[in-house]
Amino acid sequence: MRQAALATALACLFSCYGQAAAPSGWFTAGSAPQYYSVDTDTAVTYLGKPSVRMTSIAAKPSGFVTVMQSFLPDHYRGKRIRFSGFVKANGVQGWAGLWMRMDSGYLTAAFDNMQGRPIAGTTDWTPYSVVLDIGQSVTGINFGILLDGAGTVWLSGVKFEVVDNTVPVTDLLGTPYEPLNLDFLPNRPSSDPDSQQ
Questions:
Q1: How far apart are the C-alpha atoms of 156 and 159, rounded to whole Å?
Q2: Pick from 128, 113, 130, 121: nearest CA to 30
Q3: Which whole-number Å values give the CA distances from 32 to 12, 41, 64, 183, in the listed order?
Q4: Which of 31, 59, 153, 173 is surrounded by the most beta carbons within 10 Å?
């Protein structure tokens, strides 16, 4: 009940802009959703399944749009999660990517938005994924796809699954679990014998 109320409130807060209208169970957000159109596409499909399409409706949109979900982490704490899907792109002049974020209260505990390996230009259906650990302190899980700039992307074949620790995480933050370099020493290459002391 609490999760449904949260999703409804977030959907109302974020999806009441211009042309952006997400499929059922998802909502739109971002810095400029009014510059984009979001809808379910039953003509462009992956393995017979419909896709969600995001396309710019401005020649040079300022800001990004995302189609996303947010939910409570109770069933996933202490596990490693992979969010994956197949993305098709047409004329993406900025960049697009799958993304996932773990919130711990007001802090971001883990995050990846594929900005270092962006989707750009024109591509056929291609698999992508982001993988994060869900720590015990995580209070919210958020995931989706974003488009920043002119062009169109489609997402289909989405999976959200628990994976084992042999699957590497893609966390961009790399937040340490302990404090580092309390003595303010310069970095030394691992081959430096003094670095072993």
A1: 9
A2: 113
A3: 16, 21, 5, 44
A4: 153
Radius of gyration of the chain (CA): 19
Q: Tell me the CA distances in angstroms from 95 to 47, 76, 101, one per residue in order.
A: 25, 30, 18
DSSP 6: H
Model confidence pTM above 0.85: no
Closest by CA to 30, choosing from 15, 9, 19, is 15
pLDDT in tens, the chain (197 residues): 444 443 443 444 444 444 457 888 999 999 999 999 999 999 999 999 999 999 999 989 999 999 999 999 999 999 999 999 999 999 999 999 999 999 999 999 999 999 999 999 999 999 999 999 999 999 999 999 999 999 999 999 999 999 999 999 998 887 666 777 788 888 754 444 444 44
Residue 174 backbone zone (phi > 0: left; psi -120 to 50: alpha; other: beta): left
| Nearest Cα to Cα of residue 32 among 17, 22, 10, 52 | 17
Specify whether the CB–CB gap between 80 and 167 falls below 8 A: yes
What is residue 109's DSSP assignment? E
Phi, psi at residue 6, to the nearest 5°?
-65, -45
* Cβ contacts of 91 within 8 Å, gap of 6 or more: 121, 122, 150, 151, 152
